[in-house]
Amino acid sequence: MEGKIIMRTILAFILIGSTIAAFAQRTEDTTRQNKTIHISKLEIGKKKKEVFTGRDSSLIVRIDTLIMNDRSQLVFYGKKDVALHVAHAEIGKRAYIFGTDGKNNGTDFDIDMRLEKLGALYVLAGGHDANNNGSRTFPNGNGGRVNFTYDSTGIVPQTGDKKASHYLQIDTRAGGYRVNPQNDLNNIYSLINLGVRGRPLGNLAQGTVYSGSPGRDGKSTVKARE
C-alpha cells in the first residue's frame, strides 16, 4: 500500500513538472511571436490613430494592406527598433508615422512599402527636448535612423515639394536645439497624442530645455527596392 502511495506521489510530481515546463515553453514562444505582428488589413480613419506599445523594445510589423486616411497617425511608443513592411499602402494627406523609445530618443525605422496612393507622409523619428515628464527625466534625445524603401512599380515618393502630391518627409533631428527652424514639424509633434492614461504624447516631447548639449542627429535614406 505504501509503495502505491509513493508511486502516485512520484507520478504526480512528474506530471506537475511536465505541465510547468510546457507552460514555460508556451510562454517563451508567445513572447517571441509577440515581437512579430502580421495584420491582413489596417485602416486608420481620418484624424484617428493606431498605437503600438508593449514591453518589447523591438518590433516587426507586416501589413498586407495599410490605409491611412488624412491626418491619421501610426504611433510606435517605447520602441527602439521597428521594421514595418507593407505590401499595399494607400496614404492620404498629411499622414504620420511616429516613433519614440519613451526616453526622448527617436525610433530606428526600417520601412519597406509599395505605395498605391500617396498624398503626403511624414515619418517622425526625431529626438525630443529634455524635460520633466512628471516622474522621470531624460537628456536631450537622439534622432532615429530611418531607411525608407519603396517599390518602384508603385508610386515613387518625392521629397522636394511638400505642396505637391506624393510627398515624403523624414525627420531625424536631435532634441535640444534651442533654435529650431522647423516650426511646422514642432507643431506636428505637438498634435500627436499617445492616448494612454489621458496624457498627450506631445507632453513627453516638449518642454523647457534644462540640460546641456543637443542629442545626436539621426540619418535617413530613401531608395527603390532592389
TrEMBL record:
This is Uncharacterized protein. Residues 1-24 form the signal peptide. Residues 216-226 have a biased composition (Basic and acidic residues). Residues 207-226 are annotated as: Disordered. It comes from the Bacteria. Keywords: Signal.
